[in-house]
Amino acid sequence: MEPSKPSFLRNVLVKAFLFCVIMILFRFAYVVTLRGESCDLGDFCFFSKPEALNPIVGTGKIAASSAIISVDGEPKLDLYTRKEWRKAVDFYSSIFQDLIAEGYLDQKSKALCVETLTGQDVFALKEIGVKDTIGISKKASPPLVTSGQTEKLKFKNNSFDFVFSGNGMIDQSKNQMNFAEEITRTLKPEGFLVIHTVFKDTYSFNSLLDLFSSCELIRFREIHGFDSSMPEIREIVFKKLPLSSIHGGIAKFHGNLDNKCFVPEHKRELVRSAEPLIVEEPLKPWITLKRNIKNVKYLPSMVDISYKPRYVYIDVGARGYGSSIVSWFKKQYPKQNKTFEVYAIEADKSFHEEYKTKKGVKLLPYAAWVRNETLSFEISHNPDPSSEERGGRGMGRIQPVKSKGSSVREVDKIQGFDFANWVKNTVSEQDFVVMKMDVEGTEFDLIPRLFETGAICLIDEIFLECHYNRWQKCCPGQRSSKYEKTYGQCLDLLNSLRESGVLVHQWW
Questions:
Q1: What residues form the membrane-spanning segments (predicted)?
Q2: Which of 66, 89, 84 is nearest to 76 (CA)?
């Protein structure tokens, strides 16, 4: 018996209806998955809100009618509907809403997001009502992000009420000082700057603060990041000082060795963490002091030095290029992949020629001294047979003329210069400065001068060879008459440096 036509037609309609329902459900699941479990696409959802009633502030969702998610009228679903992108937007929305609640951000603020790759932070600001927001990055991502260099922003001075730098971008900058100067330049006085960073210790935190000298620290907190690239974030809020309050310059120190150069507690803690000084005078100093270098706790091995704008090594009494510059500093000092400017201070003319062919080092062919003046020096065959000889010159050292009876090879006129004043004119408080000093007893003149002028405050780490009437290698029980100071006086000098907050190590 053949089925009736109405029954056959009914079956066809039922199957067609079920097919349509399945397709609708499939599309619904697809859109909800892409949109982060939401249904607000006006061209699909049956009960989507009218455009006028689709709120932006506080929803944490993307409005289909919003102009910022489309280019030439076409929605950018390939980017703005991705779940990862939405997760980042929600993260930044939460951050910015906290800042609004705390009074650091306002919906009327003119805002800038620097080095934002795809503009999640820009979108989040617009979404919570901060409409006048622009992002800038090396590569543009229209319409949220325009192209430009953070190290040379195209905006005028005092243009923005709020500046945001997220995703640890300041940590990745090759010129952090310029990065900091540019974003603070574009920030209005009393405007707010928020930075997300991943600094590792108190030293690097304070180094980062030093980059923003025209701002005051408002608050700091630790928050959880939204992905594995930055699981923990340090959020810092700055407020730019009024123009009348912005001033520069380094802190000065006045006094002598009985005074202390003021340093913050975190630097004093580093000094306390350093290797202990050798208290008892070594019987074989030429062995003991050389071996002690293995115990040295270098500053870069204890802290992160990344936030310094410049790295400088000063070798006072450098001798030849292959001496401490190559054999120790270049090969052993932990530089954290930073490029250091190297200054070699050496008055002995016999070493000057080899520096002419060396790149990356600047020779100062003078004697480090307490003032600018011409000095008389003797270059002698060292009477101490334990000393190494180099071409007949006793260690190649230059020493002040003491007596007519000295075993003198030659007497020469050497130009001395005010070393402390040179330090103050060459480096700044923000720079990372390492100094090695081996000046044949002149350290007892130079160190007090560094304190007197405040130049000592500009040096982060010192390696000091202190010269005294040590036991002679050749003659057991006999002391060298070359120097008048005792080991106890050397120890006092080293202790005074550490007590003043200066990280100093014993050099051999």
A1: 12-30
A2: 66
